[in-house]
């Protein structure tokens, strides 16, 4: 992409409404713009990041054996009546009427629609287990949308639903999803914790959340200094425990002491059991030919929230520091004197094409501005590697390789191997 052609409205200062660093930087780096409270347009740079996360999620879901579908955002009231959630969900469920005065809602989640699909189309235990997912826009009329896309009203979620013949089979799919979520967060490169959680409005038997650790997290989690033990204090409060008495105390599993941390919930996995299947009469024939109620699991990843969570964990006073896996671009070629010097323009364009052919996602800053402005913008948008091509190139055939983390070296332009090494 040539920067001169890119819709990249960067801002020097963040608008006052932005309270947390990710929201500030998403506005300043031209990733999103607000349309209404909790509702955003994704600009080209933001969309590239969103798509990169989406692709990682899709690849890992496919590798786990799950199958992708796309369900509608608009859902009929009748389905929600079957589980009594038309009433239970309260004002978070955005209700609409069509021209015939029929009731619909904008889907905040899809248990009803998917269970309806499965009960109508799957008849035998032989067709199970099934794990069906989608990556789709959700709407929740949140009481307090805030922190930009972190808590939006319209947001992108990967949601999946498993259908299993019995509890043991559900447990096995649940563990596969648990592992899949670990792979996703490790591939993105985030520091996270798996936390025992409250099942909330979704319901069910047991659930765990995946939290990206960050000061601005809305959730308070108690974690052991030595072991995997971690619990959302929301769950403790529900059970009447006293959080303050936990700090520094021995962990309940006997390993290490309890520390209180803040987390951003980016994923949630549930063993639903038979709740939805019973309400909606979702049965299959078992191996004795008898109708057997399905056991369900559901598993969500906040795809758009992950963009903000990644920034909360990776930034400095200059801007975003993208984990390479989800950076909008791998490399930014900063061409100084592009418009005046044909030699520079030609060399930059050749480098741009060569790197693209090598499979990199490359940005070429061909604008008229000087080094300072260009480097500032690059640091703000967080590209991992800059290649500065200017006077030095004319004199010695050298370019400067400058990483977002500050390392810098001069290299002969023909030596692209050094660039490859950077990404190892
Ligand atoms: P929260 O406790 O943050 O309100 P939730 O428990 O209601 O979330 P789930 O129903 O578990 O959310 O949804 C699955 C995932 O979708 C969450 O783990 C989160 O990453 C994401 N998510 C939920 N609500 C929002 C929102 N308002 N904006 C952005 N992402 C969201
Ligand atoms: Mg949740």
Describe the secondary structure blueprint for this structure.
Blueprint: H1 21-28, E1 32-36, E2 39-42, H2 44-63, E3 67-68, E4 74-76, H3 77-82, H4 85-88, E5 95-97, E6 103-106, H5 111-121, E7 130-139, E8 154-164, H6 167-188, E9 192-196, E10 206-213, E11 219-224, E12 230-232, H7 233-238, E13 258-273, H8 275-279, E14 283-285, E15 291-293, E16 295-302, H9 303-313, E17 315-316, E18 319-320, E19 331-335, H10 342-357, E20 362-365, H11 371-381, E21 385-389, H12 391-396, E22 398-403, E23 408-412, H13 417-422
Parallel strand pairs: 3-7, 19-20, 19-21
Antiparallel strand pairs: 1-2, 4-6, 5-6, 7-8, 8-16, 9-10, 10-13, 11-12, 11-13, 13-16, 14-15, 17-18, 21-22, 22-23
This protein binds adenosine-5'-triphosphate and magnesium ion.
Magnesium ion is lined by residues 200, 209, 265, 268.
